[in-house]
């Protein structure tokens, strides 16, 4: 879906530099309105009812749109509203993924990856279907948007997308077995919690024997709500665990 050229000018909305599909506007009275668009799906949120109504009228002139009410489902992500706040999950996405891979009745795993894993190239192992592996890992990458506890594992298995073996596919299957135990897990964004920002970071020193690069992980809380997280291999080889920790903080 193309954003009309007059959108920014007519409604004085600012396009986000971090996500070009996100537009926002702040009023002098402290109100805020935001619009997020993906193909033909649109989310409009904010506490400025006047601006939201002006936006709705503008969109009606440009497109055929249908108001679906309070947001409940968007791109595979489910939202539930309560007095506590908003619960975000991908339960249906996980259920569909288990069914697609033939694992709806699989034996659950207590962890998404072996804590003492040493995944490497394993060239002596049988080769597996590259397209199947890449498709599964891609789905897990998207699932990590609401499942922070699989971020590290997804980061590890993503490093074998082009030189994969049976041992790597088994590692991906273990994530699916773990998801069986956590179908109903959700992220809660609590109401009225303030704007205190907290960041936690850590590093796994020389965790992969392939190149001995360490892994950086971090998570960010805003007002006690988990808002961002990531697990990523560092670009250079740290010479000590202390150096790996400093690089994670940097």
Key terms for this structure?
single chain, 250 residues, alpha+beta, 3 domains, four-stranded antiparallel sheet, 11 strands, 24% strand
Q: Globular, elongated, flat, extended or rod-shaped: what is the shape?
A: globular
Our count of domains comes out at 3
Question: Total strand count, please?
Answer: 11
What's the Cα radius of gyration?
22 Å
On the 0 to 100 scale, the average pLDDT is: 86
Order of helices and strands: HEEEEHEEEHHHHEEEEH
Strand content: 15-25%
Q: What proportion of the residues is helical, as a percent range?
A: 25-40%
* Main sheet makeup: 4 strands, antiparallel
* Strand order in space, largest sheet: 1-2-3-4
Class of secondary structure makeup: alpha+beta
Segments where pLDDT lies below 50 for 5+ residues?
Answer: none
Helix tally equals 7
Distance between the termini: 38 Å
Short description:
The chain contains 7 helices and 11 strands.
What does this structure look like?
Strands 1-2-3-4 form a four-stranded antiparallel sheet, covered by helices on one side. A four-stranded antiparallel sheet has the order 5-6-7-8. The mean pLDDT is 86. The chain is globular. The protein is built from seven helices and eleven strands. The chain is of the alpha+beta class and 250 residues long. The chain folds into three domains: 6-69, no CATH class; 88-182, no CATH class; 192-249, no CATH class.
